[in-house]
TrEMBL record:
UniProt xrefs under Pfam families: Phage_int_SAM_4 (PF13495)
Species of origin: Arcobacter roscoffensis
UniProt entry keywords in alphabetical sequence: DNA integration, DNA-binding
Domain Core-binding (CB) span(s) in chain numbering: 1-83
Highest taxon in the source lineage: Bacteria
Protein name: Phage integrase N-terminal SAM-like domain-containing protein
Length: 103
C-alpha cells in the first residue's frame, strides 16, 4: 500500500528543508482543507473549492489576513509540490480576511 497524501506532503516539506513549525502548519491546513470538503481528495477539487475554503476562513472563522495567507500557501504547496498541479493560471479569488484595527 502506498503512502498517504499527507505523509507524502510531509516528505516533500522535509526534502525542501522547511522548518518543523512550517511543516506542522502546512500539514494542519491541508488536513483542514480536506476535512472541510468532506474528505474529498484534493485531486478531485480545484479553484472553486480553494476559494470556498479561504472565504470560509475569512467570513466564518474570522482569521487574520496572515493566517489566511498561510493557509493559502499550504494549499498551493499541496497542489503544486505534492500533486504536481499548477494553480498559476487559476486566478484564485477568495474573500480576503480583514486587518484588525487597533485604536
Amino acid at each position: 500500500m502506498g503512502k498517504k497524501l499527507l505523509d507524502i506532503m510531509r516528505d516533500k516539506i522535509r526534502f525542501k528543508h522547511y522548518s518543523i513549525k512550517t511543516e506542522q502548519s502546512y500539514i494542519g491546513w491541508a488536513k483542514r482543507y480536506i476535512i472541510y470538503h468532506k474528505k474529498r481528495h484534493p485531486i478531485e477539487m480545484g479553484k472553486i473549492e480553494i476559494e470556498q475554503f479561504l472565504t470560509y476562513l475569512a467570513t466564518k472563522l474570522n482569521v487574520s489576513p496572515t493566517t489566511q495567507n498561510q493557509a493559502f500557501n499550504a494549499i498551493l504547496f499541496l497542489y503544486e509540490q505534492v500533486l504536481n498541479i499548477s494553480l498559476k493560471d487559476q486566478n484564485i479569488q477568495a474573500l480576503r480576511a480583514k486587518e484588525s484595527i487597533f485604536l
